[in-house]
Amino acid sequence: MNNKRQSMTATEALERIADKSMSGSEYLASCFDRIHQREGKVQAWESLADTQGGLPGGGLLQNIPVGIKDIYDTRDFPTSWGTGYIRSDRSVSDASPVALLKNAGAFVMGKTVSTEFAYFSPGKTRNPYDLDRTPGGSSSGSAAAVADGMVPIALGTQTAGSITRPASYCNVIGFKPTYGLISRAGIRPFSETLDTVGYFARSVNDIALVHAALTYQPHAPLTRLDLAGLKIGVLRVPADGDLDQDVEAALGRTCQRLSAEGAEITSSLSHARELDRLVELQTLVMAFESSRCLADIYFQHVDDMSDKLREILERGFAITLDEYCGALQEAKRLQHSVATLFTEVDLLLSPSSVNVAPLASGISTGDPLYSRAWTLLGLPTISLPIESGHQGMPVGMQFIAPRYRDSVLLKYSHELLSRLETYPGTLDE
Amino acid sequence: MNNKRQSMTATEALERIADKSMSGSEYLASCFDRIHQREGKVQAWESLADTQGGLPGGGLLQNIPVGIKDIYDTRDFPTSWGTGYIRSDRSVSDASPVALLKNAGAFVMGKTVSTEFAYFSPGKTRNPYDLDRTPGGSSSGSAAAVADGMVPIALGTQTAGSITRPASYCNVIGFKPTYGLISRAGIRPFSETLDTVGYFARSVNDIALVHAALTYQPHAPLTRLDLAGLKIGVLRVPADGDLDQDVEAALGRTCQRLSAEGAEITSSLSHARELDRLVELQTLVMAFESSRCLADIYFQHVDDMSDKLREILERGFAITLDEYCGALQEAKRLQHSVATLFTEVDLLLSPSSVNVAPLASGISTGDPLYSRAWTLLGLPTISLPIESGHQGMPVGMQFIAPRYRDSVLLKYSHELLSRLETYPGTLDE
User: Fold this and answer.
1) What is the DSSP letter of B275?
2) What is the pLDDT of residues A351-386, one digit of tens each?
3) Structural domain containing residue B130
4) Pairing with B58, which of A96, A184, B155, B279 sits 20 to 30 Å away (CA)?
């Protein structure tokens, strides 16, 4: 019974609270129990709430505990941006996504572990499916907390692959909405052209609930969509990037399963090859902007920061304004190629990550390669937990939709997850 | 002598410090003197530095005092965002533009008055050319402090017309670079699609110095450009907006003076009329995004805020996600019309404001009408202090360039200001 509650989705919990087979405070208490039981091993949290009671009100996410990546400002918790050398006390206001979740009735369970300023240098968190492995990053604690059943929902951010990769490694859904739809007010920027709020959950309906709360729109339960005739283009950007064989095999199985459901799979797409360039452009834009966004951190803390962070900031400072503007203009031209590509298919499919979660190394949380292009283009993406690879570890498959087609992507994802068998998984406990 | 120093530009001061005819600390002291003499009337400052000494080092802006709008985070000053109901202590890090100015040697003189959250509700600042009038907003204190000779340079932000309009009303240069070029990290957002860092100064070379510091690029002194054959399109967006007759006359005089310098002036531009729609789109995007950006402020302080602010936030919350996405897509299509328009002309010319500074009313800082379109399009604009209108008050003329042509716009502006007689002006003292 307790075990059942721990892996309950927000949607299931809300149904049970509504039909009075469970109270809101019972549900919250079960999540706190799970955290107390597992946090010593998973280490997903920077700070935790100390209240365990239920909450008044009646919003969309009433009584639902959520985790917030520790780069969001919060009135109730300090923020340390994944660093040991800079820390802010409670903020005068909540970051907008936090305020909007709280307004919908959600209970902020605490702040989850981020890599250093949401870049590459890992925090303490481990992968709940194998405690010797990384959960991915930079939204490490958010993905791990949802994967482990500590909370049904958590917020992260993506600048390169910080939603998609941890979702892939931790066997959860990771949704990155269209660039700009969700306000980033109160989240420390790393790259203003790229930074995007994203969310983790264990059901697409939970993702849709969060999306409704964060866009301040009414929630409509996800309707069913027919997969027959759905045109899916298989696309890896870059085309010749290093991809582990086990993940390539998982991609092949996914295509077969989609075909069996009636979807039309194609891998010969026009203009696809020119998109390779997006990876370099994203890398350049991220380096240039991070150096400007973290200028004060660099000037004050260059001796405190990790080598990885120092390297990208110094690389960024060395990029000229002309190179940067040129990259943005080239990216804009490639947006047109992608628009053309979406006249041929409804969705694109790519592996979420180049591998399953690697062993925790203390210096990396894995490679964001297959997310860079979509982040630069600002397209909505979702990583679905439907596959496994090396040593039975989970790996996600990433579906990509045109700009502003977020709702359609969620509807198809809901249908896909209800039709395709998901990775059964066994937590490392 | 002292009077001369007060109106010195940064470029002039740097020259005199370099040739040792003045020390850095003498210059700083003269700016402090001017503030102490005039602040009781102009009221440009929220907080002031207490150091008066010179500074070590040798950066691009060494010893140059700057004003910072009170919506930028600062390690040395509190921030209150133009409100009486929310205030943050010193921040753990400086906003990026502040860090980059300090890194170039600038001395932060203090925080300048902003309207409430950089929206419409006025602060205490008065127009230095007529103390009964508004300085414009939202960057009220920054424009007034530069106009009054308290500092040579100040930073503001523009979401609708908050650089261009106060520059126009206060007889200073107001430059808004291409959207996205200058990091906004550490500046509280009002509308992420629109918010743009901008700067005030009394010489284009000073603007270029700030631009070099904020983009972390070397500074190249502005070269001369021939005005003969320069194609300038006269364009008011919206075409039939309310424009005071004195400003219309000033626009006419500007066209004649430009013609006399050899520029080719045209007012029949293709696609111009369809740009009118940008005004509505900018208004919609600003309302939608402000409600999300200030969500926590609304939920916590709805009873404290001005009616104007409450109204835009509530209007924003009522806009649907579909309307918002539609507006962004329509704006993107209109960017193509503007690109076409720039194949016909080098620069566009518009009045900076619909009027000269109105009398201070306590409820408004004037109308941003003629800036809305350019802010939504993200184009670089500069307001030049070259005209006057009703009762001899100053009024600016706004020049607009294609995206990323910031340097070209500054070069032409430098040439224009060295060729056209500027408004002589008399401060109200």
Assistant:
1) G
2) 999 999 999 988 899 999 999 999 999 999 999 999
3) 1-429
4) B155
Residue reference for tokens 């100064």: B201
B139 is catalytic: no
Q: Which residues of A touch B315 (CB under 8 A)?
A: none
CB contact under 8 A, B183 and A295: yes
Query: How far apart (Å, rounded) are the C-alpha atoms in residues B392 and A69?
Result: 55
- Report the C-alpha gap between A191 and A277 in whole angstroms: 19
Q: What is the pLDDT of residue A362?
A: 85
d(CA B292, CA B318) in angstroms, rounded, equals 11
The one catalytic residue in B80, B121, B162, B291 is B162
Of A293, A299, A321, the CB nearest to B183: A293
Interior angle at CA B18, CA B16 and CA B21, nearest 5: 40
- Structure-token match 């007529």, residue found: B130
Contact A90/A77 with Cβ under 8 angstroms? yes
Kindly report the CATH number assigned to the domain that includes residue B196.
3.90.1300.10
The answer to whether the peptide bond before residue B368 is cis (omega within 30 degrees of 0) is no
**pLDDT one-digit tens code per residue, B68-86:** 999 999 999 999 999 999 9
What's the total number of domains in chain A?
1
Residues of chain A with pLDDT under 70: 1-6, 52-57
Tokens of A205: 């309906």
The set of residues, in sequence order, having a beta carbon less than 8 Å from that of B108 and lying 6+ positions away, is B49, B65, B66, B68, B74, B76, B77, B98, B101, B102
| Nearest one of A172, A168, A169, A141 to A157, comparing CA atoms | A141
| Active-site residue set of A | 69, 138, 162
Q: Least CA distance to A79: which residue of chain B? A: B92
pTM passes above 0.90? yes
Average pLDDT over residues B146-170: 98
Asked if A140 contacts A52 with a C-beta cutoff of 8 angstroms, the reply is no
∠ Cα A284 A288 A290 (to 5°): 115
**Which is nearest to B65 in space by CA: B79, B49, B76, B80?**
B49
